Every structure is written in C-alpha cells, then in structure tokens.
Amino acid sequence: MNFWDLSHSGKSIVVNNSETRKNYSYLEFQDRVDAFKAEMAAQNTKGKTLGFIFCRNSPAALAGYLAALQGKQAVCLLSVQLADFLRDELIRIYQPDWIWAPSEMGALPNNYDGKREWEGYRLSCISRESKGTEIHPDLAVLLSTSGTTGTPKMVRLSYRNLQANAESIAEYLRLTSNECPVTTLPMHYSYGLSVVNSHLQVGATLLLNNHDMMTRSFWNLFKEENPTSFAGVPYTFQMLHRLKFEQMQLPSLRTITQAGGHLDVQYQEYFQKACGRMNVRFFVMYGQTEATARISYIPVEKLSDCLGSIGISIPDGRMEADPETQELIYHGPNVMMGYAESRKDLNKGDELNGRLRTGDIVRQDERGHFYIQGRLKRFIKPFGLRVNLDDLESMIKKRFQKACYCTGDDSHLLIAVPHENLTQEVKNLMVDTYGMKLSTLRVSTLTDIPRLETGKVNYAALKDALLK
Fold first, then answer.
1. Do residues 290 and 396 both lie within one domain?
2. Which of 372, 387, 405 is the last residue of a domain?
3. Residue 455: pLDDT over 70
4. Rounded Cα gap, residues 338 and 240, in angstroms
5. What does the pLDDT read at residue 43?
C-alpha cells in the first residue's frame, strides 16, 4: 500500500496552533484530498500538470501534496518564506500549471487566477494554456537542493523513490501505528517530508506543528499532545543541549532522529547518554535530497561503537567507496531520477538507474561503518538545509554587483565582503531572504582574498582567515 493512500485504518492528523486545534481521521482527511483532486480535475485540460505548493506544516499543504500524488500530478514543494523575487523567478522558469499557497502570500504573476480557498490557502491556476513540455509519467515531486536560496536546480523524485524511502525508514525505525511524531522540520525539506511519508506509511498519528522548538509554545504543545518522537538537524541538538535536555520531563517521548549534517561527537555522546537515562531511542542518520531522504543510519545499540560515523546502509540500499577517489557511491531504489533546471527537464526519465555519486569522501572501518572525510564539491549544512556555496556567491554578486566569497562548514556560513558597508546588507539578505540564523552566520570585510597559483580562490586559506 502506498503511503499517500489514506483509505486504510490510520489514526489521525492533528493540527494544533495558537488559534485552534483540529483532529481529522484519515478518512475525513481523504475527503479534503478528494475535494482538491476534484477541483484540479475541473481545471485540467492537458493531462499531467505541475503544481507549486508553498509549504507550512499545515492540513492545507498536506492535502495538496497528497492530492497531487493520488492524482498522478507532479508537484514542487517550496518554502513559504521564499522571497517574492525568487518565487517569481521559479514560476517563470518552471511555468507551474497551478499554485497552492497561503492566502496572504504576495501577489502572483497576473496570468494566475484564484480558484479555491481552504484552511488559509488559495489555489491559483494558470489562466491560459501552458506551453510547457510534457511531464514524465513517473515524476512525482521536485525538491530544492539548496533550501531557501531559490536556485532553479531541483531533484526529480519518482513515486517509486518516495515509496521505497518511506518503507525503508519505517522498517529500520520500527515504526507502528502507535507513533505520534511532532513535525519540527518543514515539509519542503526532504528530511521533514520523510517524517510525514514514513509515518503515513504505517498509519500513525501526525501532529502538524509550526512552532520553533526553541519557543515556549512548542513545549506547551508537547505537554498537551504527548508526541512520541521528533526529528532534528545539528543546530537543533546544539540548542537542546543549551536548554539542558537531560533535565526535561518528556514522558511520552520514545524516539529522536538526527540528520541534516554532521553532529559533533561531543553532542552525539551527550544525547546518547541523556536518551539512555530517559529510555528514548536516539538515531543518528545520513542522507541527501538526491536519495529522497535517507542513505544510512546507526542502529541505536551500536552508536557507542561508531560515534562520528554515518553507520550502515538503510534497508534495500548499499554503500561503497569509489576505489580511486574514495567518493561515497550509494545504490538503492530511492535514488532520484536526476536533476531539473527548467520546465523542459520534466519530461526526462530515470537518468541514474539507482546509482548516486554523493560527492562525499569517505573511509570505511574494519566493521563496515563509513566515516565522511570531506566533500568533493562546495556544500555545507550550517542549519540543516544544504547550501551550495557557489550558488550563494553568484546570487550575492548579482544582488550587490560586488564579488563576495563564501566558505564554512556544518557549523557556520562564512562570507567575505570587499567593503565594510556591505557587511550588514549581506547579513540582512541572508537572514531576511534566505532564513539563515545569525548564530550560524559570520560576514566579514576582507580585501585581500587568498588565491592559489592558478588564480583561483584558496577557500581553505579563506576559511582560516575568516575564523581568526
């Protein structure tokens, strides 16, 4: 059974925010999904369509997503916080046939007409026949590889990719219908989406939440609803450490999962011990959007033996190191079909055939556990969402007409700007437009950029200079 089929005897979908609390049984929620599908069918005259959903962890966004899957439409999941100029550029490049977005979102291009509203969302459909290319029948979901930076490069995921990953995660986490995860990550982020998919797979209760974990509102909700699990990125666990997680009283909590970047060993040790005392399972995991979400995990009982590693492959997957470059290669049914950079790429089939070159350099110990040593390309995950540093540099340069240089690691994003008067402007851009956190961001003035003999920027030396 596919996870997007709600006709089975699942528990419920609960939304709890500061204004209201609603509880939908799976069958009641299916009625909402059916209404959305009927509206789409009434608008559709061209076969398979592409929709944009600007995501909150809300019943409306979830209903739109499931309706697209059930109706065999393609859907691109995007951040609701995406800046208007980035949103409009993506609309221009991908020409979506319909858009499902919060009603208060800024005005859409004038060739989209509003058709329907529900739970604070509005459906807008293109008012003239789209001239976009046909969409491949296997294409289900487009996800961004770069969080909220607005790059047009998307991961193309098939229905099989989504289902395989949901089944695998449910298997190794040993999920049952008695689970009740609270959503702590956004739906447009592959890790957050995998939490939704894997729990729908087993008919569990979903607690839809948009409160930040560092707020009193979140922990009040936690005490009211008694969720059994939550997911976090490294930044989440750094903040929970500051909040003295080991002293919290969370009797309903049974499982915590961590992914979205490398968590320092000191934090892995801390949460392993704290969770042990609280009788909570703590899973350290590794994945990429290109693998739908998950590639590997560390079994709870083995964490103390392989702290700092990415563990073993998920069920039905396999990892190996390239014998020449030591790049990690992953094989599995959850490997994406390929990338898209515009609407014309949506008719492409499976270009990878289940084999993904991850871009991560690894070593393997004698017990078969893999450890990441570095990256072939310039990606970092300072707040759980992967950031392509080259893309970021291009966007800053385009915005300010000045060359700025980006480096960093999974703890900090470091940016060198040529003039002091740009420091605050770039910082504001990163925070206001891209949703980056000040605690992981450092913008510094640096006029003498270190370079290699070839003239290329010496990013290793640049990182050292910016960390001084």
1. no
2. 372
3. no
4. 36
5. 75
